[in-house]
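Notes to self after the Tuesday call (sharing in case useful).
The group wants a holo model before anyone commits to mutagenesis around the pocket. I volunteered. Ligand is manganese (II) ion. Logging inputs and output together so the record is complete.
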Amino acid sequence: MAKEKKKPASKTARPADLAKRLLARFGPEDRVLVLIAADPDALASSLALKRLLWRRVANVTIANVNQISRPDNLAMTRLLNIPLVQLNKVDLSAFSKKVMVDSQPHHNTAFEGIKVDVVIDHHPVGEVANNCGFCDIRPRYGATSSIMTEYIRGAGIKPSSRLATALVYGIKTDTYSFGRSSQLEDVQAFQYLFPKANHSVLRKIEFSEMRLKDLALLHLALDRFVVRKHSMYVHLGEVSSPDNLVQIADFFLRVDSVDTCAVSGVHQERLVVILRNAGYRINAGRLAEEAFGEFGPAGGHKSMARAEIPLAAIKKICKDTAEESLSRFVMRRLAKAAGPQKNTSAKK
Ligand SMILES: [Mn+2]
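Result:
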């Protein structure tokens, strides 16, 4: 009986056996704490674990270490009714078992010193995780949601549409809709879950890109934008977070005739420029570097780039830091940087 304890959760074990071994670690008296760093994959995985333990333990509490701020994550927790508590408000001694999904103890300083009994994850294996009683880490997988789907199926559970929706979104998010780091197992889990998901809820979660308070800035952007051929630009003045500039840039790319866009604003004495590009001709990273590299950190890749210029660095060029001066500065630098690219290809 004792020999079974040390055995690591094998990657080749059958899902049914694995599920059995996982569930054998819990008893009806257990008060279980599930620790997560809340993102769609972690949220879905915690919901799956809660389902696996349903009627097998006294209770399950899901605690997130981070503050959720992304609109899609907020919509997901609200619409799928995922009960969460903040980890720093939790009395750890009130729980007899601690489980970590989609994370490992070394991922977050807030996890330090917490002895976990079970870890199920898909990130590269860290040392601490190996010391826990039941450890199933499969770095090959694109999402922990895919692993959890195997547990659900292995345990003979038919997932509710709420759980299926969560897991589908978890897999989609972590694999960038199978654009990268996905495996056959992720596809198989997705295929199984897809018909069971609620697609209008799923679409609503995916479309949740803004908070209500962000609409004021969108209003300003729609009021001010300029279009030149297939490019769009707007300067938004002082913003509370550069993330707001990203939202507007992503929104502009929804316009069919717009391939490239730039959105700028001021945050903490820095002029932040966000570039987005979906066309073939332009390389956003190179454009950012050429236009703004001499003033501050600037770069990125073909489709996304950003520059952060200390306002002090452009003092000599801009006569002041009024919105109009900054807007003109960004437009001029971008036009100049984009110019020679066209010429070199035409010279040939
Ligand atoms: Mn994940």
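Two things stood out.
The first strand starts at residue 31 and ends at 36.
The two ends are 76 Å apart (CA to CA).
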